[in-house]
Amino acid sequence: MRGAAGPEPAATPAHLVLVDVASRPPADPGPPQLVRFTDLVRQPLDRGRGSVRDVWTSTDVDRRIRWRLQVVDLRDAAGLIAAPDDMNHAIVGFAGPQVAVRAGGNELNGPGRILHRDEVLTVRESSVRLSRPRLRASGSSSMILLSYSTSEDPPTLNFEQPDTAQDPADGLRITLALRGPIRRGDGEVPQGAALVSAPFAVPPRYR
What we know:
The chain is mainly β. The protein has strands at 15-21, 33-36, 43-44, 50-59, 65-74, 78-82, 87-95, 99-103, 113-115, 121-123, 127-131, 141-149, 156-160, 171-177, 182-184, 187-189, 193-197. The protein has a 6-stranded antiparallel β-sheet, with no helix packed on it. This is HutD-family protein.
């Protein structure tokens, strides 16, 4: 007689990867850097209770922002993130109560789109309004926000499975461990951290 099947093994969550391909990568890109979210300085939202933390910022030779990667925490019913007029955004939710996202700072722009896990949502507007339909849920809603200039090709932001073969990228690569640790060679990227590979393969950046 066939025995009862045991529980299905838990699937290893996909991790988020940003790749910014440089046109002229350096001969020596520098060693990888580990950025822990808990070590980053919190700045307030433009409106509402919550914070943003800069993971990495890339600038051009004139110190203009090409793109900025941030951790966003919303603790209020609604919040607003404003950026320069030439910026658009890509948003990924990874923890906490559900969030609705809509473009622009005007509350009359409709109910917005629900931000689902393992989904990259694009906002083609400089301002992003966040709201939590179920405010009774406690805790903060955590998101990854990529803001990028529309005057240049933006970096890619995609989910990858742990066993995905990595093509060598002539540029910067950021692997974010959002829902569990990630094995990388002989080491591990802990949950709540980002591994920045080839950090000097793009124009100068500031923190």
